[in-house]
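User: Continuing from earlier, I have the next pair ready.

Assistant: Great, send them over.

User: Here they are, in order.

Assistant: Folding the first of the pair now:
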Amino acid sequence: MEYLTVAAQFASEMEGGTTVWTSAQGVGFTNLLVEFFAKPELKRDNYYCCRYEFEDGSAVVAVEGSWHVEGPEPFSCIVI
């Protein structure tokens, strides 16, 4: 059985892609982050970039019109 991070579960809810800001169920990106208990953190040198960390330490990063599952470093992106 494959373990999905909370960030991967979040991404599956936002199944329309990384430029879609509403889930298939009609829940907005920000409201879904609240449902997943995400904590926001702004990047100090780029206020257009925000990291949302979940309880398991995984995260998604939103930057200028798109969002992505975080890569191996904080604020890095994995394009899905």
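And the other member of the pair:
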Amino acid sequence: MSTATRRHRRHAPDRHHGPPRLRDLDPRCVAGLAALHASPPLLAAVHRRGCLLCGGQASSAGVFTPSDRLQPAFDAPVGKVRSVAIGLCERCSRLPGLGTLIENAVMQAHGIAAGPPPN
């Protein structure tokens, strides 16, 4: 094996530019994804709604799980976690800063101001 190949393999995890890998997700997100894909009516509804960011035809479905500090803004009871099912088109799923774009769009859609919720 050449040095270049060894170097590429050693640094390959750092070169991942796509969506997060399942093993890197918060367990709450994994649970939300499992629930989404276990419910064909919910999955169909996400695809009918279209892309969260541009409104185009959604080619993938996912789950946005707000951070612990944002859970109260989504009316989550103490000890519970709220998640939001979302759809994305192929183009938008490749945008840089996708996590921030999704968070802002979900918060705007739910009428929640950006930034920390009021105490």
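Worth noting for the second one:
Residues 1-14 have pLDDT under 50 and may be disordered. The chain has one domain: 25-109.
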